[in-house]
Write a structure and sequence with these properties.
With 416 residues, this protein is α+β, with helices and mostly antiparallel strands. Helices cover 67% and strands 12% of the residues. The protein has two domains: 2-196, Arp2/3 complex 21 kDa subunit ARPC3 (Orthogonal Bundle), CATH 1.10.1760; 271-413, 2-Layer Sandwich (Heat Shock Protein 90), CATH 3.30.565.10. The chain has helices at 2-28, 32-52, 67-77, 79-95, 100-125, 128-154, 158-229, 238-263, 275-285, 287-292, 311-327, 360-365, 381-391; strands at residues 55-56, 62-63, 271-274, 295-301, 306-309, 333-341, 346-353, 395-401, 405-413. The structure holds adenosine-5'-diphosphate and magnesium ion (MG).
Length: 416
Amino acid sequence: MSIIKDFLLQLTLMILPIFTYYTFVTEWVKCRKNRLVIMSILWGISILFCMSFPVDFGDNARIELRIIPFLLGTLYGGVWSGIFLSVLIILYRLYFGISVGFYNTMLVLLFSLPVILFFQKSFAGAKKAKRVKIAVGLAFYYCLIGLTIFGILRGFTFDYLKVQSIHLLFAVVVTWFFTVLNETIREIHQLRTEMENTEKLRVISELTSVFAHEIRNPMQVTRGFLQLLNEPELPNEKKKYLQLSIEELDRANEIINDFLTFGKPTVDHNQRIDVCYQLQRVVNLLQSYSQNHNVEIKTDFMEDCWIFANPQKLNQSLINILKNAIESMPNGGMVWISCTSTEDGYIKICVKDQGIGMTKEQIDRLGSPFYSLKESGTGLGMMVSYQIVRSFKGKIQVNSEKEKGTEFIILLPRIS
Ligand code: ADP
Ligand code: MG
C-alpha cells in the first residue's frame, strides 16, 4: 500500500510544474527567456522532491522518477536547462554523501545527457507524435543505462532486476503520459492565443472600415461645397457653404479625437482627485452650451469625494454624458447632477435629465461604436465614456424611460 502511495506522490510532484507553468507562468510572464528560466526551476524543484521522497522497495531498493522531470525539462528547456538540472542532481546527490550511488548518478548522467541533448534539437522542431516517440525512447534508454551501470557497480541479482524492470516500465509509461499531457495543454494554449489574435484583427478591421466610412462622409460633403464655391454664378451662397464645410470638417475632427482617446495606450497619469471639483469644472465648461439649449443645470455635491484617476479623462467622460443629457431635451428642461459617497466604497455620480429617454434595446446598445440616433451625432461619446470609466475600475448604470428622462449613474472606487 505504501508503495502505491509513494508512487502517487511522485506523480503529483511531476504534475505540479506542468500545471503551474501553464496556469500561472504563461499568463504572467511574457518574455520567453524568463519563462524558460522559471520552467527549469520548476522542473528542478520537482527533481529535488522526487529524490527526497523515493519509493522504498525494501533494503537498498529505492526507485525514484527523477528521470521524468529531468528528461522533460531538458527536452522542453534546451541545453542550458539540461545542464542546470544535471548539476542540481549531482549537487543534491553529493549532499547524501559520496558512495557507489553517487558514482552511479554521475555515470548515468554522463552517458545520457549528451544523447538527450543530441535529440533535443529534433524534438524542438517535431510535431506531437514524434515528440512523444523521442521522449519515450529517451526514457527507455536512460533507464537501460541506469540498470546496466548499477548492475556493473553492484552486481546483477534477481531482486535487483525485478525492481529495475518495474522502474523501466513505470518510467516509460509515465514519460509517455506526461509528454502527451504537456503537448495537449500546449496545443490548447496555442489555440487560445491564436484565437485572441484573430479576434483582435477582426475588431481592428471592423473598426477601421467603419472609421473610414464615417470620415469619408464629412469629407465628401465638404468636397461638394468647395466644388460649388468654384462656380461663378453662386456668389451669395458663399458664406453658407463655407460655414457648412467648416462644420463638416469639425465633425471629422471630433470623430478622430474620440478615436484617438479610445485607442490611446493606457499609460495613465492617474492621481488623487476630488470628483466634485472636477464636476464643477465640467458644469462651468458646459454653461453656455446648456444655455443655448435652454437647459438649466442643478448640482448637489457632497464634500470630500476622492478617487484615483486621470482628471482629463474623467472630465471627458463626464462631458460626454452631460452633453447627451442636454441634447436629449430639444425644448429645454432641467439636468440634475449629484455626487455622493456610497456605503460599499464607491463615489456615485448621478446625471439625470428630463429628455426623450431610451428603450431597453437602446440602453443595451449604448457604448457600441457609431451608435447614434442624432442627425449629426458621432456615436462615439458613450463608447469613450464607458471605456474611461472601466479603466478606472468603475461602473456605469443607466435607468431610462421613454419620454420621461434618463439617469446615468457612474460608480467609481473611493479612496480616503
Ligand atoms: P452621439 O451623442 O454622438 O449621438 P453618444 O455615444 O454620445 O453619441 O450617444 C449615443 C446615443 O445614445 C445617442 O445618439 C442617443 O440616442 C443615446 N443617448 C445617450 N445619452 C442619452 C440621454 N441622456 N437621453 C437619451 N438618449 C441618450
Ligand atoms: Mg454624445
